[in-house]
Automatic annotation (TrEMBL), chains A, B:
Binds 1 zinc ion per subunit. This is Fur family ferric uptake transcriptional regulator. GO terms for molecular function: DNA-binding transcription factor activity; transcription cis-regulatory region binding; zinc ion binding. Belongs to the Fur family. The keyword Repressor applies. Keywords: DNA-binding, Metal-binding, Repressor, Transcription, Transcription regulation, Zinc. Its cofactor is Zn(2+). InterPro entries: FUR, Fur_C, WH-like_DNA-bd_sf, WH_DNA-bd_sf.
Amino acid sequence: MRHTEDSAAVTEALDLLREKGERVTAARRAVLHVLDDASGHLCAEDIATRVDEAEPGVHRATVYRSLQSLAELGIVAHTHVPGSATIYHLRHSPGAPTGHAHLQCSTCERFFDIPSDWLTPLGDRMREELGFELEAQHAALLGTCAQCRAAAG
Amino acid sequence: MRHTEDSAAVTEALDLLREKGERVTAARRAVLHVLDDASGHLCAEDIATRVDEAEPGVHRATVYRSLQSLAELGIVAHTHVPGSATIYHLRHSPGAPTGHAHLQCSTCERFFDIPSDWLTPLGDRMREELGFELEAQHAALLGTCAQCRAAAG
DNA sequence: TTATGTGCAAACTGTTTGCGCGAAG
DNA sequence: CTTCGCGCAAACAGTTTGCACATAA
């Protein structure tokens, strides 16, 4: 096991694991570190690659299982991306106080974050008229970004 | 080749194919029939199954390819569904004048349609503030439906 | 006749799972 | 010491692709 210093966010997450009676393992610690370091959003495969750099020998399947349990515990959040891999990030990330929804450009495939509250009026309407509770951050929205629109004319 | 009567929508689609110099084949005709008959939204596999009933021997891969070309021609529309198969429907369907966006319940997996214009204010904001052009119908939104919310308490 | 679409099999990506071993508690 | 997580390999779903053959135009 590697003994890199755990950041505040990671320590918090590990404590939460222990509290819930879950085990703290090298793999889970490594996954948390990767997510903590990552500025953007990473898919499981990317995470596996980086985990394997820090903690060689950790299997991809383990990364998937770790992400699953961490998601169930509410430590990480995942966003489904149409037509490609699910992306993951730490839930109570310092940079994101409100929570954010995800936009993906269908052309260049880049992601853009928007504050969740942009979706609040829509969510309200769905609740009122359909009784449907929207989870704004759970699926990426598609469209075309400014750059690609300009490029396309 | 089967000689079932083509509906107006199917005839229109086939004409469009010819106009564009694309070939009218049994497989494509069958795919269009299935989409025309279908009330709800079907994934490629479902379409393949139904196509095979009407036109035995049509390969799944052909259905995928047909859907692809029909989508490029703007005859069918597809919606990516987080975590499962892409769903397809006829573009200028008689029942859907405005176009609709798709909601999926994460619990029971059922779909709900909402008018695209519910997303117009959000789309406007994205365009103004980010230059991002939202394609509201291109990805399903996730949440929890009234029934499942009630069931969960 | 000739380009385009098709059938088939095989690859591919993203993800899950059954099994026995190993390590956290 | 016991249970839970892990590594591994294999399976899975959804989709795409290279190739040779068939067929719409």
